[in-house]
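Hey, quick one: can you model this chain's 3D structure?
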Amino acid sequence: MELNQRENRKHVALIILLGYIGNLVFAFLGYALFPPTYENGLPHYAPGLLYMGEISAALVILATSLMAIKLADEKQVLPSAGFTMMAISQGVFFVTIFEAFGADITHEQLEKAYNIQVGGMVLYMPALFLISFYTYFPRWLRIASIVACIPYFICNGYFMAGYRDFKLIDIIGGIGGITLGTVQILWGVWVWKRRYHE
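Sure thing. Here's the predicted structure for all 198 residues.
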């Protein structure tokens, strides 16, 4: 069954919105149901938290990739490139979950995981800058898109400066996750609101 253009736009907008909402919901559920513990300065992540993180990452990759394709179809090259970079960055985080985190994590594994994550976070900064060129987002949302990377910038700087208070790094990263997740939901809401106006 072939969808007409109007129905297709509706489905695309709905998947984007639900993907971004699901991302934040599963992240919150993971931390609420399976909070990390910290022993000897090292975080320990329960398998349930990691699984929720995998679902969360998969949903945000889905929504962000679809957003990139949608904007490419609209000939919005710069924001499309930003969403593509963000999907790649989320893929880096997804790999990190499998690569290093777990209940019996060592200091070396944690260093490796955080170094990989720093690489992913570095992609956020230009990605969010490019996304801010999407003229169909209101100005306040475009500014919020750029501001959303500030906690990650602080987190990167803290880690790269040699500080290894992983609990503080997790808190700053969590603030970044909530900030960016909220902005992403607002992107989804905005796309949903204008699904028939394209």
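One thing worth noting: The beta strands are 37-39, 42-44.
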